[in-house]
TrEMBL record:
Assigned GO CC terms: plasma membrane
Signal peptide: 1-21
Domain of life: Eukaryota
Protein name: Phytocyanin domain-containing protein
Transmembrane segment boundaries: 142-164
Molecular function terms from GO: electron transfer activity; metal ion binding
Pfam families: Cu_bind_like
Length: 166
């Protein structure tokens, strides 16, 4: 195999996980607001390490709090939890497992249903891990959601490829 071909394959292999990462707009075109079924939305998507959640809302109207399972059930955050408030809050999914998010504005989490729980799977291309007996298998379908795929990594990979091929 030629040196150029080896470099091409190595470059593509290096960028594939980044290229495959997805930005998920929470709630699709509805965004982060009251009276939306975020659990149904989450079940239509499959989240992996490297993906990002984008919470879009009018600043000052809502916020995003990362909570644990108890905080999710009780619609309460622990002391010291920092609220995300920009209206374009981006959360990188860095580790596999369950993740919980709520709106901390009074009456938005309950009864307004502004709460989201997701299961983050290992990064695409990484070895599969068997679920423990206490975990439920992921039932999310591969149905598409409104997503934004960053072209930055793809552009870098294309540039490197072009330089190698010259």
């Amino acid at each position: 195999m030629s040196f150029k071909m080896c470099m091409f394959i190595a470059t593509i292999a290096l960028f594939i996980p980044s290229i495959l990462a997805t930005d998920f707009i929470v709630g699709d075109e509805t965004g982060w607001t009251t009276n939306f079924d975020y659990q149904a939305w989450a079940e239509r998507n499959q989240f992996h390490v490297g993906d990002r959640l984008v919470f879009r809302y009018k600043p000052g109207s809502h916020n995003v709090l990362r909570v644990d399972g108890n905080g999710f059930q009780q619609c309460m955050s622990a002391n010291g939890t920092v609220a995300l408030t920009t209206g374009e809050d981006i959360i990188s999914l860095a580790t596999p497992g369950k993740k919980w998010y709520i709106c901390g504005v009074p009456n938005h989490c309950e009864p307004g249903n502004m709460k989201l729980t997701i299961t983050v799977l290992p990064q695409l291309g990484s070895p599969a891990v068997s679920p423990s007996p206490t975990q439920n298998p992921d039932s999310a379908s591969a149905a598409p959601s409104t997503i934004v795929i960053s072209g930055c990594h793809f552009a870098i990979a294309s540039l490197i490829l072009a330089m190698i091929m010259v």
